[in-house]
Automatic annotation (TrEMBL):
It comes from Pseudoalteromonas rubra. Pfam families: DBI_PRT. It comes from the Bacteria. The active site is at E318 (proton acceptor). It is an enzyme of class 2 (transferase). Pathway: Nucleoside biosynthesis; alpha-ribazole biosynthesis; alpha-ribazole from 5,6-dimethylbenzimidazole: step 1/2. Gene3D superfamilies: 1.10.1610.10, 3.40.50.10210. This is Nicotinate-nucleotide--dimethylbenzimidazole phosphoribosyltransferase. The keyword Lipid biosynthesis does not apply. Its EC number is 2.4.2.21. GO terms for molecular function: nicotinate-nucleotide-dimethylbenzimidazole phosphoribosyltransferase activity. One of its GO terms (biological process) is cobalamin biosynthetic process. CDD domains: DMB-PRT_CobT. Belongs to the CobT family.
Length: 355
């Protein structure tokens, strides 16, 4: 069971924000973010501890989950499945966008092989949590077996456990997997009742013909799996991927530990939707980092009633959007703890009359 967020300090946190030397609400989303972060990071603390200890971000962890998808054989991506393994090697050697962003912004990066076509060379230092070498095609049969589903959820928990044990309290989950925008769109369709035409976008840049094919494959999968899709675990098993499964397990474990989950783009939000359907209270611990350029992502966020921090028209994946949100989290906590109050600064309180 995931404990609900204890909101005993909410009124105090909001009062602290409101009494800073600014008009109320003048820092916009940064104020909402500060409230959420302080609330999560102060779980289990008394009011005195909250004031004295000033909880901060500790060892932020970026975890990239990689897996290959059987649906990729249908030509739903601009790249063949082999590119998943090639990009994993690129992550391991520091050459990808996410490596640059993590180095720039202070993330600790790890890469998990959840099941790609060819296992990476051991010297690359990739964490091996393989469920197979590729999922089955979701429009023909369930993508994962029941055993793979259970093991994948457990692997996801284990992936974050060491970092949790060492004190990390902010996590971002990225992904790599050719074909995984199709899987994510199928998951979104199953959870929302929308058709493939409403959830499928261009992914990393496919043609209009490929978009139409993806839509048809998703509608075929929804028809094939039918009423089984009423169960979120079955949605994950039948339409998901090895990496999406482990991301769901990781999100549930982070929420269970009452730490912050920075949710990335389209694929990561599909995993978040599943986590929220399995354990609705897990959304209390999620911060939605950005709105992806992928067509269905805004609809996903609306379905969750979630407001993203950023909208940079990014659609890369790899956790790149979540990586970009870390400075905002740091800034939100900095203003909360370091900005003077009207009283401490001897400034006349500003009353905002803006409507």
């Amino acid at each position: 069971m995931i404990p609900p967020l204890n909101r005993q300090h909410d009124a105090y946190i909001q009062h602290t924000i409101d009494m800073k030397t600014k008009p109320q609400g003048a820092l916009g989303k940064l104020e909402t973010l500060a409230h959420q972060l302080v609330s999560i990071l102060s779980q289990g603390m008394s009011r005195a501890q909250l004031e004295a200890e000033k909880p901060a971000i500790v060892q932020p962890q970026m975890m990239i989950f990689a897996g290959d998808h059987g649906i990729a054989a249908e030509g739903v991506s601009i790249a063949p499945s082999e590119v998943t393994g090639q990009m994993v090697a690129n992550f391991a050697t520091g050459g990808a966008a996410i490596n640059v962003l993590c180095a720039q912004l202070g993330w600790q990066l790890s890469v998990i092989d959840c099941g790609i076509l060819t296992a990476p060379a051991p010297e690359l230092g990739i964490v091996s949590q393989r469920l197979g070498h590729i999922t089955r095609p979701l429009h023909i049969e369930p993508a994962l077996s029941e055993a793979q589903l259970d093991q994948g959820l457990l692997y996801g928990q284990e992936a974050v456990q060491t970092a949790l044990d060492s004190g990390s309290n902010v996590f971002a989950l990225g992904e790599m997997g050719i074909g995984n925008t199709t899987a994510a769109a199928a998951i979104f369709s199953a959870l929302s009742g929308l058709t493939g035409a409403e959830t499928v976008g261009r992914g990393t840049g496919v043609s209009a013909e490929v978009v139409e094919k993806k839509q048809q494959l998703i509608d075929q999968a929804l028809l094939l799996h039918g009423d089984a899709l009423d169960d979120p675990r079955e949605v994950l098993r039948r339409l998901g991927g090895f990496e999406i499964c482990q991301m769901v397990g990781a999100m549930l474990e982070i929420a269970r530990a009452q730490k912050v989950i920075l949710v990335d783009g389209f694929i990561a939000t599909a995993a978040a939707m599943l986590a929220c359907r399995i354990e609705p209270v897990s959304q209390d611990y999620m911060v939605f980092a950005h709105c992806s350029g992928e067509q269905g992502h805004r609809r996903m966020l609306n379905e969750l009633n979630a407001e993203p921090l950023l909208d940079l028209n990014m659609r890369l994946g790899e956790g790149s959007g979540a990586a970009m949100a870390l400075p905002l989290c740091q800034s939100a906590l900095a203003f909360y703890y370091q900005m003077a109050s009207f009283e401490s600064a001897a400034v006349t309180q500003v009353v905002d009359t803006h409507e």
